[in-house]
Design brief:
The protein has about 280 residues and is mainly beta. The chain contains two helices and 13 strands, in the order H-E-E-E-E-E-E-E-E-H-E-E-E-E-E. It has a ten-stranded antiparallel β-barrel. It has a two-stranded parallel sheet with strand order 1-13. Strand 3 and strand 4 form a beta hairpin. About 5% of the residues have low confidence.
Length: about 280
């Protein structure tokens, strides 16, 4: 028994030493992108109106990718933060609905290099969405608040290729919430009533039967230099149903911005010449 225990301790210590050496001789550049999105918005929310509204949408987004410290060869993480502003009008053009919202998501993903230049991954995602719709023609109920916390699945496919002499990184990332909680008042319930203390029936368990959301992003990073030009498409689908209120919100956007890799270096400690770089998406 003592020999078995001693063997387990030695194996554990050896694993700790190897892990420490790998951390010492590895560096994990951060792949960051800043993008602007411009496109169309399609909104229908029966709490505010029975009419569908169509218009424009804009967004600002920050994305951060990095190989994870626990196992930089096999795990990557993605942090995404976004702000959206939209305006849509009815078919007659005499009424407008506005939307403003913020969203954040974080995802650790198991990744595989399946071929030269081709990398894919899959993992869980934690999402937080907050926003508000405002309809200028309503007097009693001019606004509809939106809030949801969900967990789901996400993944990515990254393909690094050269088109002529230009290196290009293609990236596809879908995201699909599976379960969580979202906010919805009763049909016709005033927010003033909620303020006075009517808090029952406001939180709802989210599943595909009453809360369906799907986001798709397809981009290409054109590596003209150390900083790349990012262009692509982002589409969003959100459909909810609770308390006899049906809300559908669809967006399609062309996105453009900049991206690149950044590596923080301690000026008091020079990197080891044996250090290995673990890239989250790019391959040089």
């Amino acid at each position: 028994m003592k020999k078995i225990l001693l063997t387990v301790i030695l194996v554990f210590l050896a694993a700790v030493v190897v892990s420490a050496q790998n951390r010492e001789y590895s560096a994990r550049p951060v792949t960051s992108s800043y993008t602007v999105g411009v496109g169309s918005s399609h909104i229908a929310d029966t709490y505010l109106s029975q009419i569908k509204y169509n218009g424009w949408s804009t967004s600002l987004r920050y994305d951060r990718w990095q190989a994870m410290k626990v196992d930089p060869l096999s795990w990557v993480m993605n942090l995404s933060l976004g702000v959206d502003v939209e305006r849509a009008v009815n078919d007659v053009g005499n009424s407008a609905i506005w939307y403003a919202g913020i969203n954040a998501s974080w995802s650790p993903m198991r990744s595989w290099c399946v071929a030269k230049g081709l990398k894919l991954g899959v993992g869980p995602a934690v999402n937080l969405d907050l926003g508000c719709l405002y309809l200028n023609r309503n007097s009693n109920n001019p606004a509809s608040a939106k809030a949801a916390f969900t967990v789901g699945a996400t993944g990515f496919v990254a393909y690094n290729v050269s088109i002529g002499r230009l290196p290009v990184t293609f990236l596809w990332q879908p995201s699909l919430p599976v379960a969580g909680a979202f906010f919805s008042p009763e049909y016709g319930e005033l927010y003033y009533e909620i303020y006075l203390g009517n808090h029952s029936g406001l939180a709802h368990f989210a599943w595909w039967g009453n809360y369906f959301s799907l986001n798709n992003t397809v981009t290409a990073d054109l590596h003209f230099g150390a900083t790349a030009l990012k262009i692509g498409y982002r589409g969003g689908i959100l459909s909810t149903k609770a308390n006899h209120i049906v809300s559908n919100h669809f967006t399609h956007q062309f996105i453009f911005g900049i991206s690149g890799e950044w590596l923080s270096i301690n000026p008091r400690k020079a990197p080891s010449p044996r250090a290995k770089l673990y890239h989250a998406l790019y391959e040089y």
